[in-house]
Design goal:
Strand content: 5-15%
Order of helices and strands: HEHEHEHEHEHEHHHEHH
Keywords: Endoplasmic reticulum, Lipid metabolism, Membrane, NADP, Oxidoreductase, Sphingolipid metabolism, Transmembrane, Transmembrane helix
Family: Belongs to the short-chain dehydrogenases/reductases (SDR) family.
Number of helices: 11
Catalytic activity: sphinganine + NADP(+) = 3-oxosphinganine + NADPH + H(+)
Number of strands: 7
CATH class: Alpha Beta
Pathway: Lipid metabolism; sphingolipid metabolism; Sphingolipid metabolism
Distance between the termini: 80 Å
Subcellular location: Endoplasmic reticulum
Number of domains: 1
CATH architecture: 3-Layer(aba) Sandwich
Largest sheet: 7 strands, parallel
Shape: globular
Length: 341
């Protein structure tokens, strides 16, 4: 009996020193690897950005240009595209860099999208990185959201990214390299009041990205899906116009980020080979809680998912209860207002 207890105490003592050692080595490896990969130059690489005329898309294009990439901006508004093209050119670091723009509705007929991407590759060369950033949000409870707005969000946020990816994937596979990035949202992790169709479109992107990862991994391609928080963009300003009070109160707890900060993080996470890209403590918690079977193999992230999922679940329940209280309070205020009338 004493021998068994002695053996167990020795084992526990060994683990006391081994586990922290493994953790330190793993975290150090992840940190050094991340810093090394994010310093990689994109010189002579062709980066295509949908939704590149404003917001995160334009900021991402500027970040890619600062790393030496040739950039093509894709959007519908030709005037905004020309203005963004000028801004992105100012970010170029080599005289040989080129910046192009292409006006096309990526949620339109696939043949038109495919033809546009053929022209894009003729002008800028083979596509190395596709950043799917085009999207829109119309806020409001479901019964107040028009059918046209529901269709617009599903087609632009989800179908548009599928179409551009389909138009790009074959060439990437034949070359054995490429990176495809999808811009989801934290509303793609958790359904939020007033965001029913929007959340549906952003949840769908994650499923598509996970399936695509399995299809392309052995062809040398990488896939990243970003889940940014609220970002100070023209799109955010537009959605604020129709945002219910409940949605505004729930979302304000996450803060408001700048597009340059978000774009830089997405590009760095993509270059580091991460499947998911998030920002802030809320983003980290949501990614950890929603890891599921996602192909994120970073040591630090895996460690967090194993050991922090339980505590984060408790915090998430507290968040959810606070959201329920906000919704209940707003409803009571509306009922009082109706009675007063």
């Amino acid at each position: 009996m004493m021998d068994t207890l002695f053996y167990l105490s020795e084992t526990l003592c060994c683990l006391w020193y081994i586990i922290p050692g493994i953790l330190i080595v793993g975290v150090t490896y992840d940190f050094v690897r991340y810093k090394t990969l994010t310093r990689v130059s994109l010189k002579d690489k062709h980066v295509v950005v949908t939704g590149g005329s404003s917001g995160i898309g334009k900021s991402f294009a500027c970040e890619a240009a600062r790393k030496g990439a040739n950039v093509t901006l894709v959007a519908r508004d030709k005037d905004k595209l020309r203005a963004s093209e000028v801004e992105v050119k100012k970010c170029c670091i080599y005289a040989s860099q080129r910046v192009f723009s292409c006006s096309v509705d990526i949620s339109g007929p696939y043949e038109r999208v495919e033809d546009s991407f053929v022209d894009i590759e003729k002008d800028g060369g083979p596509i190395f990185m596709l950043m799917n950033c085009a999207g829109a949000a119309v806020c409001g409870v479901l019964e107040d959201t028009s059918s046209s707005d529901v269709r617009k969000m599903l087609e632009l946020n989800c179908l548009g990214s599928i179409q551009t990816t389909r138009a790009t994937i074959e060439g990437m596979k034949s070359r054995g390299e490429g990176h495809i990035i999808f811009t989801s949202s934290q509303a793609g992790f958790v359904g939020i009041y007033g965001f029913c169709p929007y959340s549906a479109s952003k949840f769908a992107l994650r499923g598509f990205a996970e399936a695509l990862y399995m299809e392309v991994k052995n062809s040398g391609l990488k896939v990243t899906v970003a889940f940014p928080p609220d970002v100070d963009t023209p799109g955010f300003a537009e959605e604020e116009k129709s945002k219910p009070k409940e949605t505004r109160l729930i979302c304000q707890s996450g803060g408001l980020y700048q597009p340059d900060e978000v774009a830089r993080k997405i590009l760095n996470d993509a270059l580091a080979g991460y499947f998911t890209s998030t920002l802030g403590i809320d983003g980290f918690m949501l990614t950890t809680l929603n890891a599921g079977m996602s192909p994120d193999y970073s040591f630090l992230r895996l460690f967090a998912q194993v050991f922090l999922a339980g505590p984060f679940r408790i915090i998430a329940v507290c968040y959810r209860l606070s959201f329920d209280r906000i919704i209940k309070k707003c409803r009571e205020e509306r009922n009082k207002s109706k009675k007063a009338e």
